[in-house]
Amino acid sequence: MEKKRLRILDIIRKTIDLHVHVGPEVLPRKHNLLSLFENQKNKIRKICIKSHCYSTVSWAKLVNETFNTDFFIGSVTLNNFVGGVNLDLLYADANITKAPFVVWLPTIHAENHLKKSEWEIRKEWVMDPDFKPRKSETIRPVKIFEEGRLTKDILGLLEYVRDSNCVLATGHISWQESESVVERALSMGSRKVVVTHPIYQLIDMPIEVQKKLAKMGAYIEHSYAMHSIDKISYNEIVNQIKEVGPKHCILSSDVGQPFSPNPDAALSDFAASLIERGLTYDEIYQMLVDNPRQLVK
User: Fold this and answer.
1) CA-CA distance, 102 to 130, in Å (whole number)?
2) For residue 148, what pLDDT band results from cuts at 50, 70 and 90?
3) What burial class does residue 292 get, using C-beta atoms within 10 Å of its C-beta: 0-12 exposed, 13-18 middle, 19+ buried?
4) 72 three-class SS
5) CA 17, CA 32: separation in Å to the nearest integer?
6) Rounded to 5 degrees, what are φ and ψ at 102?
7) What contacts 44, CB < 8 A, 6 or more positions away?
């Protein structure tokens, strides 16, 4: 048992976690950048910091330069807080840093999310009786399609992401929207595309669509939080990974909630649980280390 634990910890120290939420934010968060860095700097190789509300590109650059490290990867999530599909913001971020950063399509302001969730910010993400979420029906969605076609803004975004060496992630848009966006992005020459936790109940992408997009070159993400918060079984996660193939998947924590473990602990538990259900150490290494490294190089 100790040998297994040490082997997993060795993998985690080399891991690039591409999905960690950080504050300050509208939602309560476990860490700000400084406390997250102090807690995780010797336990995991790199972390992509995500906010539903703000670009974290300048935050990542500031901490990396202050501490002479490349620990943090920045990102921006295209919700209403940043103006939706805002190419001016991407231009500014791309000129702040030469390092690759992640561009998430809308999450809590995706039309799919707002249609399927009563609340903009779901109560199970917060677990704070004093938090006052907004009703989804009061929020204007960020559009991916208009009249059955990808919007001009989305097409412009795909060009910009490709030319700026960014990582495109699909956020909480519907699986049908993801299928169209990913196909178009890959056909335009993008090689850094992630289908964000397609097993999530609000997305529920069919496995055959996942396999098709993976064969085209996209990576399929599976997150610890899908089990810890959304109660999807480890067996179902393993089944989907085996169907798609570990060479096409990445693992992330998707933590940052005050009640969740830190990224290294979450991923250690995630890795051990997946290994118990039939995945190998080499497959875990590929999904935590090798595949994410390809995305952020």
Assistant:
1) 32
2) confident
3) buried
4) strand
5) 16
6) -100, 135
7) 12, 13, 15, 17, 263, 264, 267
HSE at residue 48, side-chain half, CA atoms within 13 A, is 29
Contact between residue 266 and residue 228 where contact means Cβ atoms under 8 Å apart: yes
Establish whether the linkage from the previous residue to 133 is cis, with ω within 30° of 0.
no
Q: What is the pLDDT of residues 53-93, one digit of tens each?
A: 999 999 999 999 999 999 999 999 999 999 999 999 999 99
CB atoms within 10 A of CB 264: 21
CA distances, 171 to each of 13, 35, 51, 112, 195 (Å): 26, 26, 12, 10, 8
Detail the DSSP E strand segments found in 5-155. 16-21, 46-50, 72-73, 75-77, 102-104, 145-146, 149-150
pLDDT in tens, 95-108: 999 889 999 999 99
Q: Please check whether residue 175 is in contact with residue 204, taking contact to mean a CB–CB distance below 8 angstroms.
A: yes
Is the CB of residue 20 less than 8 Å from the CB of residue 263?
yes
Distance separating alpha carbons of residues 184 and 211, to the nearest angstrom? 16
Taking the C-alpha atoms of residue 242 and residue 129, their distance in angstroms, rounded to an integer, is 39
